[in-house]
Every structure is written in structure tokens, then in C-alpha cells.
């Protein structure tokens, strides 16, 4: 047999120490796994939220783009609408009303079509001056006290397209 026999008590203590060390190592690994899990879960949630915000933002931008896609075309048609509005009072004075009625039909059709596409006229005359909708060209003395800081005359009509101002109303303001 061997010269040195191990003491059974010492062997039990060694196993107990190794078991405690194993438990501590396993607990430490479990803590590391939990930290790593929490860190990865946090990254995942942030990435998911960021993607969700991106998806919503692009959807809103797409809707806005669709709403205002015709803005350039409508802006190009506004001077034609202005020309109709200047020509109609002159044509109304003529003796031949057939031309006036024909032009009036075309004007009304054009205006209705633009309104169906979301165009709306900015109301200005008699309204309080609003820098969000009006562009003041000049100020004149108000004819009455209640017309101070209000629009007295409209030089050029303003328009909104789906609630967004595409052309400011050019106005004369009372002071």
C-alpha cells in the first residue's frame, strides 16, 4: 500500500471547498449571464423602438407627400385663377353676356376642381392682420377705429393647400 494515506476528514473538507468554489463560480457566471441578458434585452428594446419610430415617421412623411404632391401644379395654376378673377368684372360690363357666362363656367369649374384637391382661399378683408397668413405690403390710416390692425384691402389673394399656406395673402393694413 502507499506510504501516505490521505486523511478522510481532509478529503471531505477539500470536496466541500471545491463545491463552494463551484457554487460561487456558477453564481458569478449566472450573474454575468443575467447582466448580459439585461444588456442585450435593453439594446433590443431600444432598437425596436427606434425602428417603430422610423416606420411611423416615414408613414407620416408619405401621407404628407401625397397631400402636397400637387402643390407645384396648383401654385402654377394660381396666376391663371387670378387672371380669371381680374377678367370677370371687366367682362360683366360688356353687352354680350354669352362670353361672360362661358368664362364664368370655366372659372367655376377650375375653382371647384382646385378646392376638391384641398385648395382653400385665405379670408383676409376685415380680418385681424395675421402674419401666419398675410403679407403686409403697406399700412394706411384706418377709415375707422375698429379697422385698426385689420386688413383693409387685398392686393393678391392667399391660399392654403390642405391647411398649409402655399401663398400668403398680400394685404393693406390699417394703422
Describe this structure in words.
There is one protein chain. This protein has 175 residues and is α+β, with helices and mostly antiparallel strands. The chain folds into 3 domains: 9-69; 70-117; 119-175, Head domain of nucleotide exchange factor GrpE (Nucleotide Exchange Factor Grpe, Chain A, domain 2, Roll). Helices cover 59% and strands 17% of the residues. It has 3 helices and 6 strands, in the order H-H-H-E-E-E-E-E-E. It has helices spanning 8-68, 71-92, 97-116, and strands at residues 119-121, 134-140, 151-156, 159-161, 164-167, 169-174. Strands 1-4-5 form a 3-stranded antiparallel beta sheet. A hairpin with a 2-residue loop joins strand 4 and strand 5. The termini are far apart. The mean pLDDT is 86.
Overall pLDDT metric:
86
**String of helices and strands:** HHHEEEEEE
Strand content: 15-25%
The N- and C-terminal alpha carbons lie at a distance of 121 Å
Main sheet properties: 3 strands, antiparallel
How many β-strand runs?
6
How many structural domains?
Answer: 3
Computed over alpha carbons, the radius of gyration is: 39 Å
Continuous helix count: 3
Query: What fraction, in percent, of the residue positions are helical?
Result: 55-70%
Amino acid at each position: 500500500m502507499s506510504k501516505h494515506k490521505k486523511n478522510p476528514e481532509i478529503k471531505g473538507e477539500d470536496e466541500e471547498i471545491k463545491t463552494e468554489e463551484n457554487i460561487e463560480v456558477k453564481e458569478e457566471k449566472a450573474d454575468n449571464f443575467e447582466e448580459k441578458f439585461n444588456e442585450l434585452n435593453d439594446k433590443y428594446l431600444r432598437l425596436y423602438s427606434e425602428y417603430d419610430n422610423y416606420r411611423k415617421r416615414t408613414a407620416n412623411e408619405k401621407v404628407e407627400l401625397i397631400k402636397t404632391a400637387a402643390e407645384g401644379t396648383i401654385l402654377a395654376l394660381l396666376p391663371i385663377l387670378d387672371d380669371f378673377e381680374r377678367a370677370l368684372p371687366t367682362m360683366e360690363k360688356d353687352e354680350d353676356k354669352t362670353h361672360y357666362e362661358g368664362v364664368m363656367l370655366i372659372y367655376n369649374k377650375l375653382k371647384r376642381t382646385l378646392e376638391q384637391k384641398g385648395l382653400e382661399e385665405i379670408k383676409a378683408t376685415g380680418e385681424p392682420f395675421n402674419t401666419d397668413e398675410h403679407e403686409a405690403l403697406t399700412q394706411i390710416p384706418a377709415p375707422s377705429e375698429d379697422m385698426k390692425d385689420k386688413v383693409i384691402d387685398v392686393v393678391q389673394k392667399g391660399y392654403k393647400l390642405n391647411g398649409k399656406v402655399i401663398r400668403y395673402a398680400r394685404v393693406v393694413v390699417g394703422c
